[in-house]
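Consider this:
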Amino acid sequence: EISKLSIIWNFKWILIMNTRIQFIYVQKKNYRQEKKRVAKELLSALKDPSVVIMSNWLKIRGSLKSWTKLWCILKPGILLIYKTPGSDHWVGTILLNACKLIERPSKKDGFCFKLYHPLEKSIWAMKGPKGESVGSITQPLPSNYLIFRAASESDGEQWCLSSLKLSSQYGVHLRTTACGFLQDAVGWMLWNWLNDSMLENHMENDANSDKSEREAHEDSDNAANENGGRLTEESDMDQSDDVCLQATAFVEEAHEEIGEVGEASQVETVSEENKGLIWTLLKQLRPGMDLSKVVLPTFILEPRSFLDKLSDYYYHADLLSQAVMEESPYCRMKQVLRWYLSGFYKKPKGLKKPYNPILGEMFRCCWLHPQTDSCTFYIAEQVSHHPPVSAFYISNRKDGFCISGSILAKSKFYGNSLSAILDGKARLLFLTRDEEYIISMPYAHCKGILYGTMTLELGGKITIECEKTQCYTELEFKLKPFLGSSCNVNQISGKIRIGEDILATVDGHWDSTVHLTEKRTGQQEVLWNPGPDIRRQRLKRQVVQIDQQEAFESERLWQHVTRAIKDKDQMRATQEKFVLEEAQRQEARERAERPWNPRLFSFNTDTNEWHYKYPEYVHNSTLRLLLIIIHKLYRKIMCFKAKLTNSIIFIDVYGFFIIIIIIGNTLQ
C-alpha cells in the first residue's frame, strides 16, 4: 500500500513539474516574441534619420575639466554625440537606460545638468549607430558620467523635458521621481543591439569544442580578425535571454623597443638647446633636494608611464611557471633570480625617464604562456601622488603564482648626479607551496649632469628572501668606478644561501651574461644571458586597444604627450603635459582635505602595505572555459526540452547541470 502511494505521489510530482516547465517555456516564448517586436520598432526608430526628439550644440566637460562644444542628438533611449552636425564624426553613444539626470549648480551662464550612472558603471555603448567601433578623437571623456551645459536656461530645460516625449511618442517608458531623475525601461535591448555583434565570433568558437586555453585564444583571435583583431579574456552570452557578459579585449602589442647591450644605450648626448633648459632647471635645485615636485623637461621623458615600465619584469613570466615546479628550495630560488634578472635588459635608448603617473591612473595588460596554456595578468594603479606611490598586482593562478606590492618613487639631486630610488617591496607567492619571496629593487643613478657624459646606471644592494625555506639571495648592482673601463659597466655580484650556508656565488653583467658558481663543487653555469635566442622567447604582451581604454588608463591619458614626443615636437609635448598636470592640480584643489580613495587597491594600516581589492576576480581561464561549455550544453538541452518525451529524464538532466553550475561558481 505504501509503495502504491509513493508511486502515485511521484507521478503527481512529475506531472506538476512537467506542467510548470511547459508553462515557463510558453512564458519565455511569449516574452522573447514581445521583446523582439518592441526591439524591432525601437531599432527602426533609431535608424530612421527623421526620428529625432531634439538636436543642438551642447558643451561637455571632459576628464581634464575643460569644455568641448559637441553636436548632440536625442533619440529614443540614446543620446548620440558628434563633432559636427553631420553624421560623419561620431564621438560616442550614451545609453539613457543606464543614466540618471539631475540639474547641476553652476556659477557660469547657461543651464548645467549631469547624466550619470548611480553605481558608477559605464554609460557608453561600444558601437555607434552605423556600427562604428572607434569614435572621433576629442579630449578624454569620463566613463560613468557626463556634465552638459546648454547655452541658456530655456534650452537646458527643453533638453531635460523633451525626454518625456519618448514615452508617448515611441513607447519607451520613463519614470520621473521628485528629484527629477529619469530612467529608461528598455535599455537592455539597446545595450544588446549595440554590443552583441562584437562577441558572436568568439562565442561560436567557445560553444562547440572542449579545447585547451591556448587553442581557445587562437581560435577567438582568428575569428576576431574580421572585427578589428580583438582578443578577449572570456566572453559568453545567454542567447535565450539576450544577456551579454563582456570582458576586457586585448590585442598583441604592435611594437617593442629594446636597447643595446652595454653602455652605448645608456648615454645621452644633450643638444645645445636642451643644455639651456637643464641649466635653467639646475638653478632651482640644491644638493640633497627631493625632485618629486620638480617639473622635468619633456626631452628626457620616455614616451610611456611608470606603471607601464613596471610591467617589464613579466615578459619572461614563464620562468616563474617553471620555478613553481622545481622540487628543491635552492632550484626554486635560482629560477626566481633568473626571472628577476630578465626584467632589466629592456631599456630605452639614451637617458630617459617614464612619465610620473597621474593620481588614479591605471595600466593593465597580460601575457599568454604557450607552454602551459595559461595567462599572466598585470594591473597597476597610482594610489598616491605626494608621495608618489604605484601599487601593482600580477596573477597566474593556473601556473600557481601571484605578485603584489607597491613602489614609492623618490629622487635626490647631488650636484653632478641624481638618483631615482624605488622604495618598496614586491611579494611573490607560490600558491601551491605557500612560499612567499620578498623582493627589493635597485636604484637608478644618473651622472654627468654638469660636466662629463650623461650616463644612466643601476646601483645598490637588493635581496630576495623566503622565510619558509630560509633561502636568501643578496645581489649588488655596482656603479662604474671613476677610472673604470667599459667592462666595469652594469656589473653585478652576489650569493645564494640557505641559513648561514653559502650555496653559490653570482657575478656578471645584468644586461648580458651572468654566471653562477656552485660553492661546494666549483662548477660554473650560465644563470642568465639575454642573447638573441632568449629575446625570441619573450612572451608577447597583450594590451587593451586605446579606443577601448577608460579615460584614466595610461596610454589613453598620455596619448597626446606621447604623440608629440614621437613627432619630436617638444613645445607641443610640454603644452600637453602641462594640461594634464594642471588638471591634476585643479582636482587636488577641489578635493581639498578629502582623502583620495583608490579604485583598485586598499591600504592596510596594520602592515603599511597596499593590497589589491579583487584578487578573487582575477581570470581563472580553465575553470571559466569549462563553465562556458557546461552552460552551452545546458542551453541546448533547454532548447530541445519540448521534444523530450520522458519528463523524468529531462528533470534529471536539468538538475544535473544546475548542480554542476552551482559547484563551478562556488569553486570560482
Residues 164-246, 619-629, 641-654 have pLDDT under 50 and may be disordered. Residues 305 and 355 are 5 Å apart (CA to CA). The longest strand covers residues 417-430.
